[in-house]
Amino acid sequence: MDYAATILSKLPGASKRDHGVRRLVETLQSYMPDEQLADITAAYEFGAKAHAGQRRQTGEAYITHPVAVAQELADMHLDAQAITAAILHDTVEDTEASLDEIAEQFGSEVALLVDGVSKLDQIKFRSRAEAQAESFRKMMLAMIEDIRVILVKLADRLHNMQTLGAMPADKKKRIARETLDIYAPIANRLGINRLKVQLEDLGFKHLHPFRYRVLETALKKSQGSQRQIVKKITEEFDTALADESISAEINGRQKHLYSIYNKMAEKKRLLSDIVDVYGFRIVCEDVNSCYQVLGIVHGLYKPMPGRFKDYIAIPRINGYQSLHTTLFGPKGLPLEVQIRTRDMDRLAESGVASHWIYKADDKSDASPQRRTRDWLSNLEELQQSGTSEEFLESVKVDLFPDKIYVFTPKGDIMPLPKGSTTVDFAYAVHTDVGDRCVSAKVNRGLVPLRTELHNSQTVEIITARGAKPNPNWLTFVRTAKARTAIRQHMKNLRTSESVDLGKRLLDRSLKDVGSSLRKVGKVRMAAALEELGLDSNIALFEQVGLGERLAPLTARFLVGIGEEGGGEDNTASLIIAGTEGMVISYGKCCYPIPGDDVMGYLTAGRGVVIHRNQCGNLSNFRKQPEKWISVNWEKDIDREFFCQIQTDTRNKPGVLAEVAATIGDCGSNIEQVEVLGRHEDCSVLSFLLLVRDRVHLAQIMRSVRNMKNVIRVSRDCA
Questions:
Q1: What is the pLDDT of residues 551-577, one digit of tens each?
Q2: Which of 45, 93, 101, 658 is catalytic?
Q3: Overall pTM surpassing 0.90 (yes/no)
Q4: Among 22, 350, 377, 564, fewest CB within 10 Å belongs to which?
Q5: Read out DSSP for 462-516?
Q6: Catalytic residue at 94?
């Protein structure tokens, strides 16, 4: 049956769209039964009527866009529901059609696909960035449920990029940047090379039009001589393979523009150096032939040391498999050669869509689908915490393609982003392992947790019951999963600590006005919470603990005293022990330690920051006396605090080592040393130490001062 003719005959003015519709139907007829084509015909009629009268910026009828998106998916041989969703993907957003109508006519599965692709235009956001991040989050969550959502979105983005020329310049650049930052990496992560290359080149073209034109012109000029060299080398490969009776298909590859531009930028090399790298792809019948071909090409031309990669034995994270080698070709020209089977070649171009088995019972056995599911389950973990912007940032980090492959003690392969540390490995094994890790072994040797991992290392994580993530890990972890887990732990920890501190601050302020939390009572507290727009006591305590609400004013509000009494002195003091956690911090401008006269300053979002009374920064705080808190140290504190001392020493060999040894002999650890100044006969050194209290510090300073090469020692204070 000629479905294309049927569709076109039913719609007025459809002759202008004849070519696109006919091509789509012919592609679908090549792999889809007639009854499914009938459903797609109905979807086309529904979409064309819904979009009737609408035009794109290019002037074309709007329905040409959904047809082009459907064509891209049809080229991947996707199923009827995905094609239907592609044709209808803009109807909910841009027409009067509703999701309920689509669900009723085409099924709930198609409606879910359409909803996953649709933007969140009906919700008002504080900023464009938040709206984009939330749209992205919604799309990715829909993708976790059904991978076809992102395939429709990628095809939609590709056609939008192909017709982006009609848009204003600022909008072009914004969309191009988003394409390069998010959609091209997602296509790469799913292994769909064909889409990735097109999205990258189109993004490059619209983001940097002048650079694109310069590169395009230079490539066209060099193509003539390149063609001859490629032809000659192809013939040599062909002859060598025929002599060994190996059947293979040889293709010279044209590098795409964005790849060339990136290599020029990363390696800071001239265009001529990049263009003269020739690429060849040899497609074999089976895996054994791939390794035979590798030996043959190495016999023809010498391989470059360190440039061989075996992605057949250890596939990339997106399922990609191939042998990569670089050879010294004629006149020393570098030749990049990829050797793979036909199945591997199909996977390299179409990735997760290469053999579409979405409905198949054995989908768990398919490498690209399994790897994609693993990645999606990781995304599901990421989205459970943080804002939409944090989720978008985490996924961006996760999309970088540079990977390393390390081994578990049992020999399992674990892929990680380049630059990952042992902590990233721990979280990749399991969130609980990451949370409880205390040390790590690489190739059976103990290493610091911040150690960067490299290919082929064997990593073992040592855990301890009761261990917790260290906030400092955020300074070196590389993976989105590790970053999200640590942040979530800090958020939970911070909440419990701020609630505890807020309760103490509020109770202390209530005592200043002759009351207490117990005396306020449940009825007054409930009324006050309603007036403040809060859900519970916990929310109030947290706000007070984080400095978002001042304890003295809140206390007066609870007991019904007007704010005019806010200038009274606070009589009670906050007692600190140094174990309060993240909601009580110590000023790095003056490094207070037990025994110092100190004060607290309420900082919104950070809780209480402790300063020495002599701190030079206090002059800035005197303008807001209501944020000051009287603070006293608890007796017999059993922990160490940071403190800074400054020494003037004579310029003699070994003086720094002598001072360091003296400090160590006094039972202190040096965290940081800095040379502040150097003269002919004198150096000024700054030491950041860990000390117990003022007595301990005095002992250290006395010992250092008595050294023969030390002229002066003092305690730093801003």
A1: 776 777 787 754 433 444 444 556 777
A2: 93
A3: no
A4: 564
A5: EE-TT----GGGGGT--SHHHHHHHHHHHHHHHHHHHHHHHHHHHHHHHHHTT--
A6: yes
